Amino acid sequence: MFALRLTGIVALTLFVVFSGAIPLTARADEPLLERDILPILTKNCMGCHGGLVSSGGLDLRTLPAMLVGGESGTAVTSGQSEKSELWKRIANDEMPEGDGREKLSALDKAAIKKWIDAGLPTVSQRQQNVDSLVAGDEQHKVPEVAAAIDQHIGQFLKAADIQPAPLTDDEEFLRRIYLDLAGRVPTAEQAVAFLDDTAPDRRTKLIDSLLETPEFGEQFGRTWRDWVCPPELPSTGNAGTQPHQQARAFGSWIGKKVVAGEPWDQVTREILTVQGEIGKNPQVIFFALVGKDGTTTADGSARAVASLFMGVQLQCARCHDDPYRDWSQQEHWGLAAFFGRSQGDFSKVEINKGPSKKPGEIGIPGSAFRNVGSVVKASFLRGDRFEAKDSQDLRQPFADWLTAKENPYFARAFVNRVWFSLFSRGIVNPIDDFRELNPPSHPGLLKLLAGEFTASGYDVKHLIRCICNSQAYQRASRVAPDIDDQQRTVLTTAFGRMPMRLMTADRLYDSLKLAFGDPKLDLRTSVAHASVGMAAPVGDALLEFHRRFGTNEEDATDFTHGIAQMLTMINHPRLLRGGQSLEDFRKKSPDASAEQTIEWLYLSTLSRHPTKEELAEAAEYVSQSADPTAAFNGVLWMLVNRSEFLLVR
């Protein structure tokens, strides 16, 4: 379909970017396992040869498994389709098996034959030995890393014949960096100070200053809090208390650690090895949030640690070998065994030293569907078994392994999440699906960032500083009007432009509090105010705001706001009443003209000066009003109800 409008490498790019990777060193006509062959096998063959069911002992999920083969020997022979059992069965229509099963099309057959004869090439092979452009064993200066980031993305765009968006203007950059790092729009005074600055390094200075603020810590911490928290927090019982305050305290705890310069490996260690009461250790809540019904579970801890700190999905492997990935049930429970002696809930975490649990072993429970009752020993993921000692807290050696510089998961998982938080898409996407068959779109970029993060001693602020100083981060979100939706999507997924994102509930709430000068802004409603689109309140002001304005955490470009949110914004009595910030400005500047006041309102909400047309229109509206205060509040109401206010551009 795309090829009707786009030709050559651009058409190829559309297909490959959507599948998750462009192998820059591969020929355009070269068949690749992940891109061309695996979709065919997944659709037609995995039901019988996918790990969960391996008919004849044959597993087709990965190339190593194909080479091992099944009862008939190896399934594929590199470069020789005529000697490959898989091809012979497919060519003779013996696979897929079964009456009524649709046989492979001639096109699919030709693709598989061509792939085998080409030597079984994979994207992962083409991404081996990729150049990170800077040495990975030492920390580098920020400009050097930022330039390498842009070089990686530039090579990608050039190979795909894609023209990137230009750098954004100062007004858009100002608002973006404040929302990303401080979690709110800048004040009018902060906006003026930056926009009036003519120093060539003004953007770098602003990034540096924001990274040292407590607000950066709050924003970073609540980002990780939201990744940890399930959509619905557990409670102490049926309709019981939910730990909202404890979850917020956990996010604040993370943020304070990062602002203080504590390295991420140490923060991670303090989370995973915590013991004691939640009053002194806010990170205790982690194990309750990822467990079951607010209590710690070994398999819940394993799945969460794998996803958050290693970037891999083990949830399917809890009950059986994952039929579409290559994680086994043994690997899942081997990881869970490190957390098998941890007990706790919302209030505490402790280690059970009783005789009922042997250190380093865990039994697969009845709820796991397969291999119930089997005993699994603690094993590092894709690594060695761990020989536990009596009374040993196995979380400690696990944290040692996880945060070691040579660990293949830890640094890559973190930098991928940070990249996602700024670009709404990971270099590996989804962000917790690192595996051979889901390779990174920009392998050199991932290698660069992971190496720099490790060499810096897991310095979070250094990593974010490098990314935010890159041209990739500072590109405009707007694109040429003649670019269609498909080309725009490709440009976004290739990181050739900055996507337009919807403010999270926290950012919107803090920005509204600032715009209205009300640190206790309360948009809760009662039945009497049902017209504003919110039901009767069930929690505090922040909880109710989250309930109404929560966004899609997996895709910030998904515009989730609709009629209910619009009704709240345009009808709520508190927002119609105006803001204390405006009153304070007018008291401080009693001689300010209508135009100056309007300009201040634009700067305090949209972080930019109004255009001539906007200024003239608003000034005329104020001049025709019998009550200037009400008119200025009307302008404020209009500005916060613009889509421009809701978006991070």
Supply database-style keywords.
48% helix, mainly alpha, two-stranded antiparallel sheet, three-stranded antiparallel β-sheet, disordered N terminus, 649 residues
Describe this structure as you would to a colleague:
The chain is 48% helix and 3% strand. The chain is mostly helical and 649 residues long. Among the domains are: 31-120, no CATH class; 230-403, no CATH class; 501-576, no CATH class; 580-648. The strands form 3 sheets. The chain has a 3-stranded antiparallel beta sheet with strand order 1-3-2. Strands 4-5 form a two-stranded antiparallel sheet. It has a two-stranded antiparallel sheet with strand order 6-7. Strand 2 (342-344) and strand 3 (348-351) form a beta hairpin. Helix 16 (298-310) packs across helix 17. It is globular.
Could you give the topology of this structure?
Elements: H1 8-19, H2 33-44, H3 46-49, H4 63-68, H5 85-91, H6 106-117, H7 123-126, H8 142-159, H9 170-182, H10 188-195, H11 202-211, H12 214-228, H13 244-259, H14 264-272, E1 276-277, H15 285-289, H16 298-310, H17 329-336, E2 342-344, E3 348-351, E4 361-363, E5 375-377, H18 395-403, H19 410-423, H20 443-455, H21 460-468, H22 485-493, E6 501-502, H23 505-516, H24 541-549, H25 563-571, H26 573-576, H27 580-588, H28 594-605, H29 612-623, H30 628-640, H31 643-646, E7 647-648
Antiparallel strand pairs: 1-3, 2-3, 4-5, 6-7
